[in-house]
Amino acid sequence: MPVQLLKIIEGQSETPLPSHLQREDLKHLQEGCDYTNKYIQGIVTLSYPLTKLRDGTDFCKIVVQDSDNSCSQINRITVFIYGKMAEDCAKIIHHGETFIAAGFKVIKLHTEREDARHDCHLEASEEAGSTIYTVAPKYVYTPLNHLKDGTVVNLYGVVKFFKPPYISKGTDYCSIVTLVDQSNVKLTCSLFSGNLDFLPKIYKVGDIVRFHRIKIKEYNGQMQGITSGGFASLTFDGTVGAPVVPRTSSRVYTFMDEEQKTIEELRIWAASNISISGPATKLSGVQPMLFFDLTCQLVGKAKVDGSSFLLKVWDGTECPYPTWKVPVEAKDLEGEKVLLHQLRNLAVDILVYDNHVQLAESLKIGSFLRIYSIHAKEASADNEDVSHMEFHLHGGTCYGRGIGVLPESNPDVKELKEFLESVTLTDSQSMESCSMDIDSTFGNVTDLELHLQRCQQLSVTVLTDHQNLSNTELKTITNSPAPQQYRIRAKLRTYKPQKLHQSVKLHCSKCNSLQEVPDRDDFDFILHGSAGTAPNPELHNTCWYESVTWTTQEQKQREIAIHFVKHDEMLQHPEDTLIMIEGGTLKEIWKLTKRFKCIIPVRSTEDDLELLDLSAPFLLKGNVKYYGCKQCSTPKPLKNLSSIAAEQQPSWEPTEIAQVFFCYLILNFLKNMQSRFCLMVFYSSFNTSYSSVLFQEKFFQIPASEILTSNFLQQKMQMTMNALCPPGRKLGDLPWLECFIKSYNVRDSMKNQVCYQIFDTTVAEDVV
Could you report the per-residue pLDDT of 187-214, keeping only the tens digit for each? Predict the structure, then answer.
């Protein structure tokens, strides 16, 4: 194995180095010599993140210091590592660890030597026959009740709640995990990675995880964990007596004998102290209005429309209710036709929506899945006396919704495979008759019409809580004091604004102010105004950013300055770089957003750079703009950004930047900024009363921060409103909505007003 970990037991390596290897002193290394049977050893003093060369080859760079000759004039050397070896090293090599390299090549540098660094560098790769050894450190694990803000720790914990990995709003995958241990302290961790395999492989509540190098931050009085540079994880089955076998995609990891005792102790504690989920529900045990997890095998899949996708699955048992067959064209359905025909009474159709679609499309036929929080709904069409069961995986990640792919080594998969092999299937028919049967099942026009009729009968809203509340008349609600909560059954008579792009507002929960989203012209006007002040050259090229200036060639010349924020005193790749710009126009800034990760428009003062007027966004990332509150925000100096730049792997996430500038976080536009959508007027048949209610983005399940820049989301919202309040329909023909509303008081200097807002209700994903 080209990259190996050496365990040190009582001062000696458990696996000694090969006997033919001889150690070479750093100061004696020369270009042109054969180092096939030689090795160097030292301490890692600097390591850089994994990156790619122009030809796509993985590459990482470390600096090693000779630990035995630290006072020598030449005691450090740079090592370049290429290919798969670089990817493996990036996962396990960290600052302060012992590093050994054998079979390397020595290359002479053509630049002047720095400090005590060697005037050559080393190159290592599998192709060159190199081997890297690193000494496994003695890890210390921190109990959850001893965590401190700002530390990077190693820890063990039992999974109390988790969200399967999903694609975040950026390009990374994200997983949310809540851990507990014997201290009864809870830690919620937000884990991000561009590679799905690098996230922990958690399959159920009760699994045990080991996290190395997780960063701890305090927020609202509670500790939270986030991934940091070098984060690594192992996952273990939490069942008492199960084999202690780690789940990980890494080929190289440490696991000491004493850690097995830690896992066994956590298993015993968890068995009696936390509610560990039992076996997943079988299809034979499904009941209407149930939300359940299902372990199953995928036998077919098909795209339904832009926001939904069909999965055909089975678990060897038969649902006790007739099930809905989603109408799709036979040519669009992937899967073995003979097997699909044989399973026609055992396989069920699950419609998945929105953020789950991309993962569903990538699933391989025949793979074993665990689908979390499936919604079983009973429905019927007008021309049907018998109801049928529908299965939906709604959008979002609430309640742990998601899809997990299980390996065949998983105990639940082994058990399921044995059971599936024992099931007697219907005799297979000829391909011709099978094809005709499937075509009639999925491609029939009559079936499509029936599907549309069924959709008209589906509930247009989903109640996510408080099922015990009974309906209240609108007249009773409007005559009752606030605050209170109600359940209503009503029709949507009208809504404002009719131009839905005007429905997005900025709301600050800190001062409760509601603000319009500044339009393009406002932003452009602010930029032109700031361009009248020339950049201050005394503020250029500081220790944490590098500056470039130039003058435009247009008739009215402008001076533009761009400040590139550095990391480790080095400029990063554009896609990882935050820049600050002075004197740029809106058109120029939009061009830069396609090239750089984040952009902050600024202007010069005598002493420092500062943000523009808060009517302008303080940050642009892609096509999304982020705003501060004009009423209560007091921005801090821009130099505070240097604290993020000093992190091992700066993320430049808007929430982190907002924390530095405003000391509070922002959601969608910023954590404390929610976006409110529509004012709707409801009609109740109980007493022909009317009431106005404010709806928020959670109801629509559409990110407010994205709708202004997405034609698709605007169309989706318009279609949703057309479904809730079809244009041209008489009042009697409008659909009924079930939802929860709460009343609250709004006071100003003149009067007190009672307002209403919807909560714990969402639009059903299958409405549009």
Answer: 999 999 888 888 999 998 999 999 998 9
